[in-house]
Write a structure and sequence with these properties.
Structural class of chain A: alpha/beta
Largest sheet of chain B: none
Strand order of the largest sheet of chain A: 6-7-8-3-9-10
Number of strands of chain A: 10
Radius of gyration of chain A: 18 Å
Distance between the termini of chain A: 45 Å
CATH superfamily of the largest domain in chain B: MetI-like
Largest interface: A-B, 37 and 25 residues
Helix content of chain A: 25-40%
Helix content of chain B: over 70%
Shape of chain A: globular
Distance between the termini of chain B: 19 Å
CATH class of the largest domain in chain B: Mainly Alpha
CATH architecture of the largest domain in chain B: Orthogonal Bundle
Order of helices and strands of chain A: EEEHEEEHHHEHEHEEH
Number of strands of chain B: 0
Bound molecules: adenosine-5'-triphosphate, magnesium ion
Number of helices of chain B: 10
CATH topology of the largest domain in chain B: MetI-like fold
Oligomer: heterodimer
Largest sheet of chain A: 6 strands, mixed
Order of helices and strands of chain B: HHHHHHHHHH
Shape of chain B: flat
Number of domains of chain B: 2
Strand content of chain A: 15-25%
């Protein structure tokens, strides 16, 4: 049974040397299957923390997360993760990185089939000329594209992406946004996507979740009622501009509040 | 070069040519460096800066080398030393890898053993020789024990500290792709440790070799150290100096071999130029 993601009253408090930090307080959100959620908000408002809890890397101090009806207790291949810090394996070549998931016992495929998938995603992220290069020979944006291809390749039902296109140049970012939407046309996935870009959020998301800081919580949820498939051209339509402006004003207000306090 | 396909062929050729030139240059300096040493050696004898009776000429050392190679005694000594180092180094490294994993993996074991390890690590292996001679006699066993000990501790420390400082993000990435614990270990932790294990081998080999000579100086019939003690007893200067040169040369060669393996195994690492 496909039930999407249920985030139920999640709170997270880190305790470290410098005392306790309440990174999340009472965050609840129901994400239906196939939805594309963008998390936006000021730096330090707990976006990465929330993503890590859904991924199963962190156990929340209170509340729980369910993915497709099963309570999250650890990471798994049903939830692909693209990390803010790339996390490309430096000891493997580009090709070996992209193929990594498919060579694991959990999602092993026949050799020819796996090769075809790997080829496809290496081409998609535009690294065909670099398949035998090691990550140390790549730029930051190229590393991030390897990481993206690596998680696309195992075809997870849920994609968790932490500022995945942040390090890319404007053209590549635009292209990666379109490719992501295209992939989702072919294989329905639920996506939680963290970004600082309001335009990026508006273009990709079916709902934009604006968060507030200290403690991190959901400030407002703004639906983007523009049907998919969305071509790049929609970014200039009046409807798009209006929604983007609305999100922008909430994000800016939160940013101002945080600055005034800090 | 396996990963050259993404480079323009011309650039790759240029790169290789430059590398070759650098290698020749290095070899040249290497020869010049040792040539200088020989010149200083001979001139200081000729000028009487060192007493020619107490320090043999280059020719005399070579002569003694050839003579000992002829009657096979040099081979016997070198073989004995080599085998001691090889056996003890292997024992030491294997134990260090196994224990390093246990210590790096289990926090309790680490907290409990860390202080003791630091004590033993700072204890020079030579300090154990008298005790080991009483325990095991002056035969091979006592030497193997001391040398294995010498190889073990430095390697252990390198390995478990590497394990403790591993980046957790790669393990996370692996888990999110569906890797089992065994797969995480074999395909994510182990590859990151390979460079450190090689470093451990380099350090251990050096310490092992240094300790070997000390152990042989004290009690052995065969081995380079034994050869030197015998030469000293009979006041034969050429074999004594030959021993010194051999020890230096062999440890240089061993280090070069390990470095070669290191370069192959860690091509992926980012290095300072
Ligand atoms: N491991 C940790 N230990 C202690 N505090 C932490 C830890 N990780 C995050 N925090 C704190 O929790 C809060 C939220 O951090 P988080 O990384 O989730 O923010 P973010 O929204 O992803 O920020 P950014 O946009 O800068 O990536 C911050 O105040 C941070 O200082
Ligand atoms: Mg973050």
């Amino acid at each position: 049974m496909d039930q999407g993601i249920r985030i139920d009253n999640v709170g997270m408090t880190y305790s470290g040397l410098s005392g306790q930090v309440e990174a999340l307080r009472a965050v609840s959100l129901a994400i239906t299957p196939g939805e594309f959620i963008c998390l936006v908000g000021p730096s330090g408002c707990g976006k990465t923390t929330l993503l890590n809890i859904i991924a199963g890397f962190l156990t929340p101090t209170c509340g729980a997360v369910e993915v497709n009806g099963r309570r999250v207790q650890g990471p798994g291949p049903d939830r692909g993760v693209v990390f803010q810090q790339y996390a490309v394996f430096p000891w493997l070549t580009v090709r070996e990185n992209v193929a990594f998931g498919l060579t694991l016992g959990a999602n092993r495929l026949p050799r020819a089939e796996a090769d075809a998938i790997v080829d496809h995603f290496i081409q998609l992220v535009g690294l065909g000329d670099f398949e035998h290069a090691y990550p140390k020979e790549l730029s930051g944006g190229m590393k991030q594209r390897v990481a993206i291809a690596r998680s696309y390749a195992v075809n997870p039902a849920v994609l968790l992406m932490d500022e995945p296109f942040g390090a890319l140049d404007a053209q590549t970012r635009q292209f990666m946004q379109e490719s992501l939407l295209q992939i989702l046309e072919q294989e329905r996935k639920t996506v939680v996507f963290v970004t600082h870009g309001v335009e990026e959020a508006t273009y990709l998301a079916s709902r934009v979740v604006v968060m507030a800081a200290r403690p991190g919580r959901i400030r407002e949820i703004i639906p983007v009622e523009i049907p998919y498939p969305r071509l790049a051209e929609i970014k200039t339509t009046p409807e798009f501009v209006r929604i983007r402006a609305r999100i922008d004003s909430v994000v800016r207000e939160e940013f101002r509040k945080q600055r005034d306090r800090g | 070069m396996a990963n050259a396909s993404h480079r323009a062929p011309a650039a790759s050729l240029l790169y290789r040519r430059q590398r070759r030139r650098e290698r020749w240059e290095k070899t040249g300096y290497f020869m010049a460096s040792f040539g200088m040493l020989l010149v200083i050696w001979e001139t200081s004898r000729a000028l009487g800066i060192i007493n020619p009776l107490l320090f043999p000429s280059v020719g005399a050392v070579l002569e003694s080398c050839v003579a000992q190679l002829r009657d096979g005694s040099l081979q016997t000594h070198m073989y004995a030393s080599f085998m001691r180092v090889l056996v003890s180094f292997t024992i030491g490294i294997v134990l260090a890898v196994v224990c390093g994993f246990l210590i790096g993996w289990f926090r309790v074991v680490r907290m409990l053993l860390d202080p003791v390890i630091n004590f033993f690590r700072s204890l020079p292996p030579i300090a154990l020789i008298p005790l080991m001679i009483i325990f095991f006699g002056i035969g091979e066993t006592s030497k193997i024990v001391v040398l294995s000990y010498a190889a073990f501790f430095p390697a252990l420390v390198v390995i478990y500290q590497a394990l403790v400082s591993l980046e957790p993000i790669y393990i996370r990435a692996g888990k999110a792709l569906g890797a089992s614990n065994l797969e995480i270990f074999r395909r994510i932790i182990l590859p990151q440790l390979v460079p450190h294990i090689i470093t451990a081998c380099r350090v251990s080999l050096g310490v092992c070799w240094a300790t070997l000579v000390a152990a042989e100086l004290i009690a052995a019939q065969r081995g380079i150290g034994a050869m030197m003690v015998e030469a000293q007893n009979f006041f034969q200067m050429p074999p004594l100096v030959l021993g010194i040169l051999l020890i230096g040369a062999i440890s240089l060669v061993m280090d070069a071999i390990v470095r070669l393996i290191e370069r192959r195994a860690t091509a992926w690492q980012e290095k300072m130029p």
